[in-house]
Amino acid sequence: VLDLAADVNGHIQETLSGIRLVKSSGAERMERGRFRDLTERYFRMFVRTERWRALASPLTEMLAAIGTVVILWMGANLVLSDQALTGAQFVGFLALSLKLYSPVKYAAKFPALVQPGLVGAERVFEFLDSPAEINDRTGALPFPELRKGVRFDDVSFAYRQGQPVLSHIDLEVPAGTVTALVGPSGAGKTTLVDLLGRFYDVTDGRISVDDVDLRDIRIEDLRGSLGIVSQETVLFHDTVRANIAYGRPDATDEDVQAAARAANAHAFVQALPDGYDTVVGERGTELSGGQRQRIAIARALLRDPPILIFDEATSALDTESERLVQDAIERLLRGRTVFVIAHRLSTIQRADTIVVLESGRIVEQGRHEQLLEARGTYQRLHEMQFRETSAQAE
Length: 394
Description:
Elements: H1 2-17, H2 19-24, H3 28-81, H4 87-128, E1 149-160, E2 163-174, E3 178-182, H5 189-196, E4 204-209, E5 212-213, H6 219-224, E6 226-230, H7 240-244, H8 253-262, H9 266-271, H10 289-303, E7 307-311, H11 319-333, E8 337-341, E9 353-358, E10 361-366, H12 368-374, H13 377-393
Parallel strand pairs: 3-8, 3-9, 6-7, 7-8
Antiparallel strand pairs: 1-2, 1-4, 4-5, 9-10
């Protein structure tokens, strides 16, 4: 029953989160049918389970009554016919047997009472008992000051054994520089930066910060030194102030507002009904895409991490929002070591190094002008985007 209830709740959440797709596809009738099928199965199973649970109490009462009648009949025979018992002995035995009925009836109903809790507990403890995949090593070190930079030494990674996503990555990222990762979808760009935050551990090779292996750094310190701004901005159902100050509970109102100004967010936040106390709604539904991105950038500015990761941070924005976000990003980049994943090559032309990935390998590396002159994968991607932009303009 609980499994079916989870299926119903999952379907509702999935449908509501994709409500625009449902409406634009005219799939309301199909979704109603799917919902009806799920709820009917849940209803039938629920009624069946509740019927058996409801029968537990009357069945135990009936069995107790039958037992009492049997004891009275046999006891009366023993007292009156066989005279094997005296009246006092029989009454004493009857009183003791009636005292036992209550715990026996409770024990009989106990499985029906606790079964829902046991099923729920099984799901909870299955989650709680699952081992953490990434753990600190004994004697893990604090995050270094990041004076030299980040280095990938012959790094390979596979989600499944025998199916490598990254192969033999050698990359040097000096401190304070901007490194752009480009390439076709599935090239391994996001996986590469996920390894930097130890969301996964490398299969082979080594990633180091100032010559210290990431696996020797405390995970809390490592991830606290990363600022991640992705295309899918995560905002909580809380105020604008709380979302900007997330991860920095000691931040003052002045700190929050300074970060919002640097992220080009202060003006639109001031125009909201309650300013910085405005609740943004679940996943930031009260804000536009560009506004959500600027809130995320303000959050990263407030945390002031030494390493920044931008994962397609402007790809889903219109031209005006992209300009405002890009201006905020320019402020955020100063003095930090930055990894930028971008499909729009126009946004990363000023990067210190552009790394081109294809099929999990680095195929080209250099500055924008150098890569265009090399007439390789980067130049092909650049021309493809130029043609698409020209076609859209026409």
